[in-house]
Amino acid sequence: MTPSALPAAAEVVVIGGGIVGCSTAYHLARDHKADVLLIEKGRLTGGSTWHAAGLVGQLRTSASITRLLKHSVELYDRLEAETGLATGWKRNGGLRLACNADRWIEIRRQATTAKSFGLEMHLLSPGEAKALWPLMDTSDLVGAAFLPTDGQASPSDITQSLAKGARMHGARLMEGVAVTGFEIENGRVVAVLTDHGRIACEKVVNCAGMWAGEVGRLPG
Ligand SMILES: Cc1cc2nc3c(=O)[nH]c(=O)nc-3n(C[C@H](O)[C@H](O)[C@H](O)COP(=O)(O)OP(=O)(O)OC[C@H]3O[C@@H](n4cnc5c(N)ncnc54)[C@H](O)[C@@H]3O)c2cc1C
Known about the structure:
It is a single chain. This protein has a six-stranded mixed β-sheet. A three-stranded antiparallel β-sheet has the order 4-6-5. Strands 3-7 form a two-stranded antiparallel ribbon. 34% of the residues are buried. By secondary structure, the chain is an alpha/beta fold. The protein has two domains: 3-54 and 154-216, FAD/NAD(P)-binding domain (3-Layer(bba) Sandwich); 94-151, D-Amino Acid Oxidase, subunit A, domain 2 (D-Amino Acid Oxidase, Chain A, domain 2), CATH 3.30.9.10. The chain has helices at 19-32, 63-83, 101-116, 126-132, 155-168, 212-216; strands spanning 9-15, 36-40, 55-56, 94-98, 122-124, 143-147, 151-152, 172-175, 179-185, 188-194, 197-206.
């Protein structure tokens, strides 16, 4: 969609076309049938997403974040078939290595946490780790852990796939449009102002990544 076709209104305006914005647009359009307009000042995936290595690890210290990452992996398992756009997703598992006794204690604690979160994680001897990755020098390895459901993907491709999925469910995505401010009435945003015009809206989701603070401080 070109900036000249900027809609005058949308139920939800999503700001930012990185992986978070495209995923938000996809889920709002698919699961909530929302009328979504995503605004990206440059090109989709042009922010931090373009620089990411694409490692997808699920275990965090927070149960909620781990649950969210488990949802991501389930989504990546089927996204390519759903949209027809390759994501580069490979569920090849992830190794965590301990090269000293303290790190080994930490990894064993992580295994207990993983179990309580329902995430598969196996503790390995150095020999078992080497069997999984024969090129590794295990001379200083105390122990390791393998998380078989972790993997890697292409961040830009996943984002484009999510963008296509969002469009398939009716979302509109616009590149080359920068948000410059907001119109606020009674403490609520009623319109997003851009360098291409005004968009009346009911809700705004700020997915501008490292620019989110800047966007939040825009006049309004
Ligand atoms: C070197 C590196 C390696 C990384 N490796 C990994 C990894 O292996 N695994 C992992 O999970 N994470 C990794 N990350 C982190 C990951 O890249 C980020 O967490 C993720 O990309 C953030 O996505 P985002 O959508 O929030 O932000 P972004 O991708 O930055 O998207 C924000 C978008 O908002 C747009 N925007 C900003 N202001 C405006 C405005 N006023 N109007 C309209 N649009 C606006 C920007 O142009 C941008 O496209 C890595 C990061 C880096 C830098």
